[in-house]
Design a protein that fits this description.
The chain is α/β, with parallel strands linked by helices. The chain contains 8 helices and 13 strands. The chain has helices spanning about 25-35, 55, 90-105, 130-135, 160-170, 195-205, 225-230, 240-245, and strands at about 5-10, 40-45, 65-70, 75, 80-85, 110-115, 115-120, 140, 150-155, 175-185, 185-190, 210-215, 230-235. Helix 3 packs across helix 5 (about 160-170). It is globular.
């Protein structure tokens, strides 16, 4: 029996676990290893998909189901299987994409399914971060995407993204969505009532030894997770963020 048996620790990645160079610090790595060695369970809570977790997965002792797609999926890295998925219906996704492109014809629209990431706007601008990280993307018309749609990601400059966000909020389908900013340049869309906090509920219902859940995140898309956790925190670099204001 370890001192942290039944304790589940979830960390956001970008801006929290990872530094500006997308690396885990030696201090954080050592702390996570110590937590796991004493019985704790450590998992990631991120907007990413399984295929682009390899570098962190190889570096850390991840032994809890991971929250992916910003709450849209709960994934077991050890078995490469989804424990829970919360799909965004195809017809609804198509309406959202049409609205986004009507607002900004060159908007970068990424469709995240349980199989891959697709870009569906033939006239879109590139997302610099996708190019920098060399994230594998398949470019196809919407009707040719494969798998179950779990989330949409819209990448654009901040001012244009504000206009897109406003257009989506005014659309008749808005009540069927959860819409949030995951950075200054990203707008993300998942099914209604889906977020990282709801994914922690998935963890509690699927893991029978949960005593306490600890969670840390740095941006608005982490707020529900931080609120839901038994112990929630924000890193020191976001003292003026919405997340931190909710905690203190």
């Amino acid at each position: 029996m370890g001192v942290y048996d039944g304790y589940y620790l979830y960390s956001d990645m970008d801006g929290t676990l990872l530094d500006d160079d997308k690396r885990v610090s030696e201090e954080n790595r050592a702390a996570i290893h110590s937590f796991v060695e004493q019985g704790g369970r450590f998992g990631l809570a991120t907007g990413r998909v399984p295929s682009i977790l390899r570098s962190v997965e190889d570096d850390l002792p991840i032994n809890a189901p991971c929250i992916l797609y910003n709450g849209g999926g709960l994934y077991d890295l050890s078995t490469r299987t989804f424990l829970a998925k919360h799909p965004l219906l195809y017809d609804l996704a198509a309406e959202v994409i049409s609205c986004v492109i009507s607002s900004r014809a060159n908007a970068c629209v990424q469709v995240f399914t349980d199989l891959a990431i697709f870009e569906v706007n033939a006239n879109q601008r590139d997302d610099p971060q996708t190019v920098l990280e060399q994230i594998p993307i398949r470019t196809v018309p919407l009707e040719r995407i494969e798998g179950t749609i779990i989330k949409l990601l819209i990448a654009h400059e901040t001012a244009d993204l504000n206009e897109i966000h406003a257009a989506v909020r005014l659309a008749p389908f808005f009540s069927q969505l959860t819409v949030f900013r995951s950075s200054d340049h990203y707008l993300e869309i998942v099914a209604s009532n889906v977020n990282k906090g709801s994914a922690l509920s998935d963890v509690r219902s699927r893991c029978d030894n949960v005593k306490k859940i600890l969670a840390i995140g740095d941006y608005n898309n982490d707020l529900e997770m931080v609120r839901y956790a038994d112990i929630g925190a924000a890193p020191a670099n976001v003292l003026k963020s919405t997340v931190c204001e909710a905690l203190f």
